[in-house]
Amino acid sequence: MNTKQEIKIAVDAIVFGYNDKSLNVLLIKQKFGLEKNNWVLPGGFVHNNENLEQAVLRELKEETGILPNYIEQLYTFGNVERDKRYRVVSVSYMCLINPKKFDIIPDTDALEVSWFDIQNLPKLGYDHNQIIDFAIERLRSKIKYMPIGLELLEKKFPFSDLENLYTTILDKNIDRRNFRKKFLNFNLLIETKEYLFQNVGRPALLYKFDTKVYKQLLNEGFYFDFKFT
To answer: Is 63 a catalytic residue?
Structure first.
């Protein structure tokens, strides 16, 4: 039986960045097409000579100027009418970066590129609001069984930054004493013997991730049962 298909394959990138107790996502304003002047996720069509991950990294570099260290395939979105131009199936990828370490530069199909707090997103083109919602839920689920923070925090950080990161992602107030005890039991952190001196309160001890343990737990996983207040 012959099957006629006229389907295009695209990739979309959900780039999360954490900054100033805010979880943000990177968006571009489209330069051309039906979604011109609308905010959308970085992405585009896959070329014939590239695999999916090559395509999404190329689109990110072309449209935003960044190349993330952490990227994972998220989900495939293929509703028939998700794109008014063609029948398009999009493979989405989730990326985690520290915005302070990257300069964002719009290019090719992007008029602008900017960070948006996930709590205050504009109405996006295509089904990209739905894709971001899916990615946020995946991220919230992910931190219960895999370590997170190496790509999002500074190299050295006070423990309160780690607590705030988890609180921000979960969008709930965690039991901080319980969180501290359980997290330290994973042996993911190394005390640097350095301190952050603040205007008020005692100096805060700085930690860094033990990358060997981090990568091991990233592969093996663990179970983190949060308590909330």
So the answer is: no
